Amino acid sequence: MIVLRRFRVLIVMVFLVACTLHIVIDLLPRLEKRAVAAGAPANPAAGSGCSCAHRPSDEPQNWGKQRTRTGSAQPGWPSKHTLRILQDFSNEPGSNLTSQSLEKSPGSADKTEAFRRLEDFAQSGGHLVGDKQFIQDASPKRERNGGPSKLGALFQHPLYRIPIPRLSEDDTLFNMNTDLRFNPKAAENQEWPNEGTDEEEYTPTGEPSADSYPNWLKFHIGINRYELYSRDSIVIESLLKDLVLQKIVSVAMKSGGTQLKLIMTFQNYGQALFKPMKQTREQETPPDFFYFSDFERHNAEIAAFHLDRILDFRRVPPVAGRLVNMTKEIRDVTRDKKLWRTFFISPANNICFYGECSYYCSTEHALCGKPDQIEGSLAAFLPDLALAKRKTWRNPWRRSYHKRKKAEWEVDPDYCEEVKQTPPYDSGTRLLDIMDMTIFDFLMGNMDRHHYETFEKFGNETFIIHLDNGRGFGKYSHDETSILVPLSQCCRIRKSTHLRLQLLAKEEFKLSDLLEESLLQDRLSPILYRPHLEAMDRRLRIILRVLNDCIEKDGYSNVVENDLDRDIADTITSKR
What we know:
Layout: H1 2-38, E1 97-98, H2 108-117, E2 127-129, E3 132-134, H3 150-155, H4 215-221, H5 234-245, E4 248-253, E5 262-266, E6 271-276, H6 298-310, E7 319-325, H7 327-331, H8 337-340, E8 344-345, E9 351-353, E10 367-368, E11 373-380, E12 390-394, H9 408-411, H10 415-420, H11 430-444, E13 451-455, H12 485-490, E14 493-494, H13 495-504, H14 511-519, H15 530-554, H16 556-559, E15 560-561, H17 566-575
Parallel strand pairs: 14-15
Antiparallel strand pairs: 1-12, 2-3, 4-5, 5-6, 6-11, 7-11, 8-9, 9-10, 12-13
Helix pairs in contact: 4-5, 6-14, 11-15, 14-15
């Protein structure tokens, strides 16, 4: 009995020592910061307020010493922040389930937070839909600077001027009279960046006008049943600039997925998904890599947005490249302890970090700056899941994600006939949307399309959102024809898509030239290695050959679905 009692006492003592060590380790950064603050020089030029350039040699070797946060009332680590519910870029979402956020299931508190961010939103003028006004086309038509260009001529072609159907309340993601209200003054931030004139503009009702809304909010309001954004929307151009220039005020790691991604919050309350640079432009995916272990490339995300717009799909959220200061814009503003603790200085005196994820998050695969600058892509977030739910669908042509097993579609040549009898592919436009996505992926060489998402409000009669394109543009020397299996098995395509592909195969509107010109607008240009651009022209010819084989086998009317009005079709035919 005495031995048993002593053993119990020993266990309790070990437990108490472990708890004490845990508390000391947790409080160490705060204590060190107070010590640094107490010993700071009186000269502001020599203290933490110095505005000089940030060099790695100036950084303390002990990463526990954080910079003094000016204007912060809380010493040490701030309290946990509440993030807006995020779009799901997870690599393993549930099949046919509503997308999940960082918090596994958004509760009433999350919805309250989401609506608080959009409170006091005013009804605005712009695009008339019935008796209501929408912001989608409130801005004038975009004027292109400089002389004539292939890209400008393309967007003036009749195929790129086809109007979408007239919008009703059911066709817009938000009803601005009831769903959305936003007032920057209610956000308790006196540093609200004015994006218009020096004084905020107000409607006659005394509420902020449409021009005073942040660009990310204008983008969300413009989403409808048929497109993420309109062809002539200047909001997208402004939003791309915001992704590059807006001050980053908070950073956290994105949960889920196999590789490191960061959630960045801007001063105007917008958020974006940051994918850091992992490969140089000219590097190809190693031949021994499986598609599910390939790197996610930041330049692929940027190029995918521009390619999607050239194909006139407009189903990829805006993406822009940005050069980020890893110290000032990530480490110093993050509230994520797990991320903060992975920062270190390399033997080459560069700032590095690796975060936490399934693949490539270790010291051996650390992301290092030069010396503290790193490239990355920033993808604008879609609307909050508490405000606009999205449904996640399993791709019928999903790969096995196994080293030896094959998926059913890889061994059954008649697999598409089974898909055609399964909702939602048995009616509506969903199967045609899959064909569009197949063409999009084949041009990029993207084999990682296991799931896709749609906006729940629009049911099955809406477009597929082309999310998560980071595994595209991995190989320019190889064309993965298995990506085209859905097209070759089903032999179905929209007439508008078919005509655009034929147009982009002409020398006048050569796809590689158009994409190269479009990518020049990005701050990180050049985005793609030239062989990747040339590979797209080659793949486009392969797509057209597959479609010609389908037409010869089944007939034009059985392959090409006419989605154009007769008058529009006649106009386009006469222009060709």
